[in-house]
Amino acid sequence: MENPVLAEVTRGNTVESRHRGAAIVIDAEGGVVFSAGDVERPVFPRSAVKAIQGLPLIESGAADRYGLTEAEIALAVSSHSGEPLHAETSLAMLKKAGRDAGCLECGAHWPMGEAAARALAKSGAEPSALNNNCSGKHAGFVCLSCALDEDPAGYVKQGHAVQQAVRGALEEVTGAEHSSDRMGIDGCSIPSYAVPLKALALGFARLGTGHGFGPERARAAARIRAAAAAHPFMVAGTDRFDTRLMSLLGARAFTKTGAEGVYCAALPELGYGIALKCDDGAGRAAEVALAALIGRFLPMDESTQVAFAPLREAVLKNWNGTEVGRVRAPAG
Amino acid sequence: MENPVLAEVTRGNTVESRHRGAAIVIDAEGGVVFSAGDVERPVFPRSAVKAIQGLPLIESGAADRYGLTEAEIALAVSSHSGEPLHAETSLAMLKKAGRDAGCLECGAHWPMGEAAARALAKSGAEPSALNNNCSGKHAGFVCLSCALDEDPAGYVKQGHAVQQAVRGALEEVTGAEHSSDRMGIDGCSIPSYAVPLKALALGFARLGTGHGFGPERARAAARIRAAAAAHPFMVAGTDRFDTRLMSLLGARAFTKTGAEGVYCAALPELGYGIALKCDDGAGRAAEVALAALIGRFLPMDESTQVAFAPLREAVLKNWNGTEVGRVRAPAG
């Protein structure tokens, strides 16, 4: 039984490419609102669960101890484009904990944002770990480690106190076992555990409502959501999908992309969590598939609908600026 | 009936992503050697058919009239990375026809090769149409137009003599109708026509053998194949798959990637043509799927097999250089 098509890519009047996948919308008590495809198969959530991974930073008191700002908390749950403000903010977080970029264990890469990468190249500089799209999360890990009075060295390893706290939060919030048998190493070197989409959606429903959380965790979740809503640029960057979505919808949608076609979201006013993965790992498909689900369930006034339309259906242009096709959820 | 998985992406010991698609291997008389998935559904070949699109450049006498070198002929059937040698060679072709880069109608984009793009940015320059991955093909179109005594202006349009010649060659070589109903606009602004994979594979079997061609076309096809085998860098660029394949296999394999997960190849000594498309348009999957088919049919000595192995199975590393997974054809 194959997963359904979540997104199609047209050229002229022909469908050129098709993206299959699975998606689920669930409420915080586990009631399934929508389900398509195999939502029980374990998938690596990758960066889509950074907000859950960020809970210990708040709950431990580290964020308050080091006086992290709302923008810094947003960056701690981001996959940012490595633009100057992102890199500077990561460094500021590290400095608040008395550390510097030398502590980061995520590795260096050229900014994910192409314009930022070219600007950095033009300046003659080389990228550092601060430009890594995960540097905000890693700066948060370093802050957490310091607040726990643990040496940050090796904080990416499965056995380090930071990763144990992160894994504990993931298991509690999603309700799914995070098994070493289903562990992979993420792009930024921390463990990623494959769990069912259904558990990820439930985790996001809880994250969006606090339902099933103790008061401290509920406050931490609300603080992270508020930070992302107030600083959507920090969560991703220029022209990025999360930034566009949350700039438009504010606190009504908390969304987070993950590598290999994963997307998770919470729609707090509805109490819904969403999780989807495109089988083939395509981000372009995950984006329009997520927008289709948000558009299906979240009421929007007319002007919001108009602004939302390009998120649901992306226009593909060629190098002369001529429209050649679309990326969209299939009709019906 | 869904297409089979042509490539899978692992992380740790888990399959993280899967790419479905269709593939066919056929001989020059149309005998099917291998077939998987729906090979009758029309697909846009995109840049995979540049060698067929390049036949009129040779057959018209334009290549000889302007004294195009073997390297320039290779560039005329390339999707190059926009590296300096590619851009310079495109310009040299245009100058031989008494033209310059202002004639190019492909649009400008940053070099497809990331290192080349950053080097260009570092130099303070902006990309021109010469950096467009199709600039060699377009320079060939301008040469063809001039040799036909046609004004090159508008050479990308369906009605221009250049595109009529190209469409004619495509129809004759593949044996498939290239219908305006199945036309899309390619990234470089020329028409692309969706045709069955089976027809594309047949076209490549003919291109690799000359079988079914008149002597002039057979010579033109052989000249293009020889140019690519002698100048694999010109066909793609640094670290690119076509360049790696043809650098290793020489004239034993003529391969050409196309956007949205298409790959075509000819294995002249076997008389086989290959065409495949990943449903989702993923290039990473098309690459290993093509390598799997070449590896299945083309005999290789032991040292070639060793060098070929990384083409069949790509290692994915994270930003710290740690292996995190593989891209490969599924076992069995």
Can you tag this structure with a few keywords?
Beta-lactamase, globular, alpha+beta, 12 strands, two-stranded antiparallel ribbon, 332 residues, homodimer, 20% strand
Poorly predicted regions of chain A are none
How does the major sheet of chain A shape up? 8 strands, antiparallel
Give me the count of strands of chain A. Answer: 12
Task: Provide the residue-averaged pLDDT of chain A.
Answer: 97
Distance between the termini of chain A: 20 Å
CATH class of chain A: Alpha Beta
Number of structurally distinct domains of chain A: 1
Report the total helices of chain A.
Answer: 14
Which architecture of chain A does the CATH hierarchy give at level 2?
3-Layer(aba) Sandwich
Judged by helices, strands and strand pairing, the structural class of chain A is alpha+beta
Radius of gyration of chain A: 19 Å
Oligomeric status: homodimer
How would the global form of chain A be characterised? globular
The most extensive contact between chains is: A-B, 54 and 54 residues
InterPro entries (chains A, B): Asparaginase_II
Protein name (chains A, B): Asparaginase
Task: Explain this structure.
Chains A, B: InterPro entries: Asparaginase_II (IPR010349). 2 copies of one chain form a homodimer. Chain A is α+β, with helices and mostly antiparallel strands and 332 residues long. Helix content of chain A is 41%, strand content 20%. Chain A contains 14 helices and 12 strands. In chain A, strands 1, 2, 3, 8, 9, 10, 11 and 12 form an 8-stranded antiparallel β-sheet that branches. A two-stranded antiparallel sheet of chain A has the order 4-7. In chain A, helix 12 (241-249) packs antiparallel against helix 14 and helix 13 packs antiparallel against helix 14. At the A-B interface, strand 2, strand 4, helix 6 and strand 5 of A face strand 2, strand 4, helix 6 and strand 5 of B.
